[in-house]
Amino acid sequence: MRIARGPAVLVSVVLAALAGCPAGNHGASAPAAEIELTAADDGGAIEVADGATIRLTLSANDGLGLEWFITQLDSEIVEFRDREQTLVQIGDPTVEPATERWFFRAVRPGTTTLQLLYLQNQDATLPVDSFQVTITVTAASSIAGQ
User: Fold this and answer.
1) SS3 31
2) Handedness of CA 56, 70, 105, 145 (dihedral sign)
3) What angle do CA 81, 56, 87 make, to 5 degrees?
């Protein structure tokens, strides 16, 4: 019996292995310990390790009286840590977008939905925009065993 060896076999093996890799978490199979979210992640789902940091950056324009507000989050699974607003320094802030950056920490295993509404004067009846992502927190000890 002859065993095939060489570059063609190696390429075939690598391609076969990559075909089974999940697309999420940038190709990694373990949940992320740190993740950056943007408006492009709206409607998606992420998996993070217990203790992970989650950063969310959204466009904002405080000059128009608009502000992002958290409307849904199970703080026993993922807790809000901090929020930073970046105002536009050059030009008219009513024209150029500023940003709001939100910081969260995964505190225990479970699944929660993070939802924010972009509101004027906290009027939840007429949101200008929204952001939502489902977050699954996995126990750090289960990651170490992988």
Assistant:
1) coil
2) negative
3) 90
DSSP run (H or E) holding 8: helix 7-19
Where are any strands of DSSP class E within 61-138? 66-72, 78-86, 98-106, 110-120, 129-138
**Euclidean distance between CA atoms 107 and 13, whole angstroms:** 39
Name the residue with tokens 């324009």.
61
**What's the CA gap between 112 and 138, in Å, rounded?**
12
Q: Other CB atoms closer than 10 Å to residue 91's CB: what's the count?
A: 8
pTM of the model: 0.70
Query: Shortest CA distance to 50 belongs to which of 26, 32, 23, 28?
Result: 32
pLDDT in tens, 20-39: 333 344 444 567 778 999 99
Name the pairing type of β-strands 45-60 and 129-138.
parallel
Distance CA 56, CA 112 (A): 15
